[in-house]
Amino acid sequence: MYRLLLALTLSLAAISIPASATSAPNATLTGTVGPSFEISLNNPDGSSVSHLDPGTYDITVTDNAPIVHNFHLHGPGVDMATPLEGGGTVTWTVTFTDGTYTFLCDAHPVQMKGSFTVGAVTLPPPPVTPGKLSGKVTARAISVHTSSGGKARRIVAKKYKVTVSDTSNKQNFHLTGPGVNKKTGVRAKTKTTWTLSLKPGTYKFRSDKNRKLHGSFKVTTLI
């Protein structure tokens, strides 16, 4: 009787376990390489993987390349790769821990690569693309324009590439402001590019040979 009651109790306990107590399925990621020089790793919603929580994931990798490509994933505790030839689809089950992971094509590691972080590790912010300004001085005029073509009057503080066209052998282009004092020669026609970090404040440009040729623009933290 005791054994019968014990068996019945265990059976009822097993039946009463809620579904939530069973193991949840692994999150699924999708890796793709080809058909040309493309490689990617995406979340279930189609967005690119940039950061993941630590844990176990199923990764379905599809090689669509008719030429020599592969998908190589490596990082802390993981080093998985598809063949360089053959194509097809494969599924890996991997466990990610805190760190940075890279995926690339072994045949083209420079053109075809990506990375993401897991857990407490984060990628540094992408580098800021320098803005563009163009300065010009002629025998009768001097100006500074933004990349959109309008005259520079108020721009945001950051790094800029300033391309100066000095078309006069009697004038020059002289730019001054916070942390900047750059100029072209008076007796030479030239085209040059300066890479400058423009800080908040007023910047003035002029010809050192003609007081009538001058102008200015302001640099602020926000437009």
Q: For the terminal residues, how far apart are their CA atoms?
A: 85 Å
- Estimate the strand proportion: over 45%
CATH class of the largest domain: Mainly Beta
CATH topology of the largest domain: Immunoglobulin-like
In CATH terms, the superfamily of the largest domain is: Cupredoxins -  blue copper proteins
- Binned, the helix content reads under 10%
Low-pLDDT regions: 4-10, 12-17
The count of helical stretches stands at 1
> What's the story with the biggest beta sheet?
5 strands, mixed
> What does the overall shape look like?
elongated
- How do the strands of the widest beta sheet line up side by side? 3-9-8-5-6
Derived structural class: mainly beta
Total individual domains:
2
CATH architecture of the largest domain: Sandwich
Average pLDDT: 89
Task: From the alpha carbons, calculate the radius of gyration and give it in angstroms.
Answer: 31 Å
The helix/strand order is HEEEEEEEEEEEEEEEEEE
Q: Quick one: how many beta strands?
A: 18
Describe this structure in words.
The structure is a single chain. The protein is mainly beta and 223 residues long. It has 2 domains: 26-118, Sandwich (Immunoglobulin-like), CATH 2.60.40.420; 131-220, Sandwich (Immunoglobulin-like), CATH 2.60.40.420. Helices cover 6% and strands 49% of the residues. It has 1 helix and 18 strands. The chain has one helix at 2-15, and strands spanning 27-33, 39-42, 51-52, 55-63, 72-75, 78-81, 88-96, 99-104, 113-118, 131-137, 142-146, 154-156, 158-166, 174-177, 180-183, 190-198, 201-207, 210-220. It has a 5-stranded mixed β-sheet with strand order 3-9-8-5-6, with no helix packed on it. A hairpin with an 8-residue loop joins strand 8 (99-104) and strand 9 (113-118). The radius of gyration is 31 Å and the shape is elongated. The termini are far apart. Mean pLDDT is 89; it is low at 4-10 and 12-17.
